[in-house]
């Protein structure tokens, strides 16, 4: 009975994480086309949602590990997974509230690492892996995608220099819509798997399905639907930062950014160097701004995002660790307490987001994501985000 | 554990080259289609420019298809 309860709790929370993963990363594919008007906001998120769902169902090989090499997988128990997922969800929601595109994978790894450290000590974490899999890619991804986008943007504007803009834009809009669709499909195949992997591991650990077996059909469908629904809900706050906050995106520039993001994501996933979709997409938009003469790149926004990327792993880790302290305290009681805290934290963050609602109607109306009507997101000092989370946890 | 610099270099090269190829093809295609329309207005046929333009756009579309091939595991 206890086991069943914990398993159900993990499945539900894993699907919630999958949902936040979807709406956090919706902007990776669709911020560009929405900002240039290549796709209408509603059309864009429906397209991305369907492609994410299709992508999640396509992937034949579900991630066998959820640790990513960061820690010893044998140390992880169902309550620790629950704590890790809680850390990842809360971090995703806080960064969403601030309109910051941060990596959902890093949030998941961070949350799990934090939980494992609390459960099994600091020595169980492999520090070098964090450097090579988090720090280096976080710097490389925007660089690679950014250089590609900058070069392509510069060349595109040179080639069409004497074509009337209105005529040129239509062609580039098609290019942008297609590359954005590829990003959404690729996202479904990679991120849809993570949640399936987590749920399958828990089911195997609980003896409810044989070891080394793939995910059940209902796990595939549930995970695909969760990430698809999350994508459909749009994550408009992040959409605004990426589409409007970094730089004003013109259509040829948007096409270059989309192509750069697509090429970098596909190249890195097939040549064995894992780059985060979020970092790649942001970097390509940034690069396309650098490549277009006269474009004003808001470097303050870029710096804020880089900080958020570097803070994601430790930040989600701290929340995951705190959650683990709670979850480890007595089997069922701890799990119930954790679920209550998670629900409360979601409620608080949702409440704050209502103060400055951003949705498909006003996503491109401004470039700023405000949390409180009086203070802009930029003026919220860093430590306060964590404090707010802690008091909620 | 070591950083795989080779993979990193490959990713950098392939990403930049394929991005530039796609966008340049698209831009050339758009430009040539526009050039052909101007030629038609001036009384010419514009068919050479139109054909070249559609060829460039078609090649860009092939790259998109290759992208789908890479993403869908059932294809390889």
Number of strands of chain A: 0
SS summary, helix count of chain A? 13
- Apparent shape of chain B: elongated
Give the helix proportion of chain A (percent range): over 70%
Largest sheet of chain A: none
Could you tell me how far the N terminus lies from the C terminus of chain B, measured between alpha carbons in angstroms? Answer: 30 Å
Approximate helicity band of chain B: over 70%
Number of helices of chain B: 2
What structural class do helix, strand and pairing data of chain A support? mainly alpha
Give the chain pair forming the largest contact, with residue counts. Answer: A-B, 52 and 38 residues
| Sheet of most strands of chain B | none
The assigned structural class of chain B equals: mainly alpha
Number of strands of chain B: 0
Order of helices and strands of chain B: HH
Low-confidence spans of chain A: 374-393
Strand content of chain A: under 5%
Note poorly predicted spans of chain B. Answer: none
Instruction: Determine the mean pLDDT of chain A.
Output: 86
Compact description:
The complex is a heterodimer of chains A (393) and B (76). Chain A contains 13 helices and no strands. Chain A has 393 residues and is an all-alpha fold.
Notes on the structure:
The complex is a heterodimer of chains A (393) and B (76). Chain A is mainly alpha-helical and 393 residues long. In chain A, 74% of the residues lie in helices and 0% in strands. In chain A, helix 3 runs parallel beside helix 12. Chain B has a domain at 23-75. Helix content of chain B is 82%, strand content 0%. In chain B, helix 1 (5-41) runs antiparallel to helix 2 (47-71). Chain B is elongated and about 65 Å long. Chain B starts with a helix and ends in a 5-residue tail after the last helix. At the A-B interface, helix 5, helix 6 and helix 9 of A face helix 1 and helix 2 of B.
């Amino acid at each position: 009975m206890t086991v069943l309860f914990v398993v159900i709790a993990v499945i539900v929370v894993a699907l919630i994480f999958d949902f936040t993963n979807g709406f956090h990363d919706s902007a990776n594919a669709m911020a560009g086309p929405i900002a240039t008007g290549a796709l209408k906001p509603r059309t864009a998120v429906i397209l991305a949602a369907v492609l994410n769902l299709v992508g999640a169902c396509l992937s034949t090989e579900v991630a066998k590990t959820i640790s990513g090499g960061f820690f010893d997988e044998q140390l992880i128990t169902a309550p620790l997974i629950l704590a890790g997922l809680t850390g990842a969800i809360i971090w995703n929601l806080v960064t969403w509230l601030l309109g910051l595109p941060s990596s959902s994978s890093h949030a998941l790894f961070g949350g799990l690492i934090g939980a494992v450290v609390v459960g099994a000590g600091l020595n169980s974490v492999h520090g070098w892996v964090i450097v090579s899999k988090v720090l280096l890619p976080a710097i490389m991804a925007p660089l690679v995608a950014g250089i590609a986008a900058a070069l392509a943007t510069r060349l595109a504007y040179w080639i069409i220099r004497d074509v009337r803009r209105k005529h040129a834009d239509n062609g580039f809009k098609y290019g942008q819509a297609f590359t954005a669709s590829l990003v959404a499909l690729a996202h479904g195949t990679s991120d849809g798997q993570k949640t399936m992997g987590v749920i399958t591991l828990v089911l195997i650990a609980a003896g409810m399905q044989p070891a080394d077996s793939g995910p059940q059909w209902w796990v595939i469908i549930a995970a695909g639907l969760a990430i698809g629904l999350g994508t459909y809900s749009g994550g408009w706050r992040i959409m605004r930062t990426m589409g409007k906050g970094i730089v004003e995106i013109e259509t040829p520039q948007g096409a270059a950014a989309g192509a750069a993001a697509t090429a970098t994501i596909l190249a890195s996933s097939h040549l064995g160097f894992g780059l985060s979709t979020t970092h790649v997409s942001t970097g390509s938009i940034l690069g396309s701004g650098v490549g277009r003469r006269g474009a004003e790149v808001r470097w303050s926004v870029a710096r804020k995002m880089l900080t958020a990327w570097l803070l994601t792993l430790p930040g989600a880790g701290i929340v995951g660790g705190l959650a683990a302290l709670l979850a480890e305290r007595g089997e069922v009681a701890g799990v119930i307490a954790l679920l209550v805290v998670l629900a409360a934290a979601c409620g608080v963050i949702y409440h704050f987001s209502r103060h400055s609602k951003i949705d498909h109607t006003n996503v491109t109306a401004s470039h700023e994501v405000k949390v409180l009507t009086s203070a802009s997101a930029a003026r919220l000092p860093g430590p306060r985000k964590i404090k707010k989370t802690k008091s909620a946890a | 554990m070591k950083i795989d610099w080779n993979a990193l270099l490959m990713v950098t090269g392939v990403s930049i080259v394929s991005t530039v190829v796609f966008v340049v093809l698209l831009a050339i295609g758009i430009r040539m289609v526009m050039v052909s329309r101007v030629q038609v207005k001036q009384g010419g046929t514009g068919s050479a420019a139109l054909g070249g333009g559609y060829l460039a756009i078609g090649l860009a579309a092939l790259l998109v298809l290759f992208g789908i091939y890479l993403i869908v595991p059932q294809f390889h």
